[in-house]
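Render this sequence as a predicted structure.
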Amino acid sequence: MHMAAQHPTAAVLLCEVVMEILSWIPAKPVTRLKLVCKSWNSIISHPHFLKLHLHRSPKNAILLFTQTKALTLGEEEKQGLVLSSVESFIQNPSSSLDTQENRHSLHVEDWVSGSCNGLVCVAHIVLCHCHPGNDICYICFRLLNPLTGFISENSPCLRVNVHNSFGFGYDESSDSYKVVTLIRDSSGIVTAQVYSFGGSSWKTINSLPAFLYFAEDTSGHFIGGTLNWLALRNLHGDDYDWADVTLDMLMIVSFDLKSDTHKQILLPKGIDEIPGQKPILGVWGNSLYLLHDYKNTHFIAWQMKEFGDENSWTQLLKISFHHLGVETLFPEFIFENGNIFMLIGRHRFEEVFYDRRDNSVKRVNILANNCYFEAFDYVESLIQPC
């Protein structure tokens, strides 16, 4: 009787030990362990385990959204998601992009609007009436987990125009994944349309300031429960010349997914003149980054070490174009805890990877792969929202 009375406690302890051990195993092999027995399948499928495992998963992969162009007349354009480590991609981009094991097909009308907690938010054009004076599209969104094969139901369709931007992130307060669409009308008024996956409708937020986000970097960057865009204030109309932009026009708009409110974040105080090319935002881990050129001779990276604290902006990197072997470049992305920067030369069809840990520079020919791609930070996970 005494042993029987202790059995439930022992079983609970054993379950906790198994959960602790399994939570340290990488996502791909742990999915196969669900087949070991019913109890392991129950543990691995439990929401608490999914979050614990996600918290302990290393960010050791990148998500490449590729668009392979047709080589011959009649050949269909193909699009897909490819998962690859940064090192593998730099060493052998062709092999990384062509691998079938980690490739997931998308429709031609699809594009990725963000990645968070192992989930990818995919936008899909349902109907398009694009002609002069009426650039209107109807789109919907869905979530997919490339590792598990999970695909969510589509969101309700949303009417958008060419003056819009998207962002995708996680609201911890409601344990929900949300997509935000910023829509700017012809008069400059900006509204936010917010959709929580699993819901039935979009929510309209009308309190945003008038601004124009850069057409080259329209995706909101998720960090600390917020989506962030680099934008221009006090701009009338949609056409502008970068040569006419001043520092006081640059702003960071931060949208809080919990409260549906926004605030403006100041740029680093050390920026004393407008960059020669349009800067971009980036996120890695718990830090926001601002990447830009200086006098078309140097590449500079700023890191906001404490998100939301404008006094924590720190110049992380300043390196000459000469060292990088380029005349002009555009910053694109950050990897490996802010240590590897992906850049592209203006007149070269190649990606330039700079590793500040050893001051090394590596180049990848992207023309040879006949594709256009965007990179997103990605962590493999087992998350499958309801």
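Summary. Helices lie at 2-22, 27-32, 38-45, 47-56, 86-91, 93-98, 321-324. Confidence is low (pLDDT under 50) at residues 1-6.
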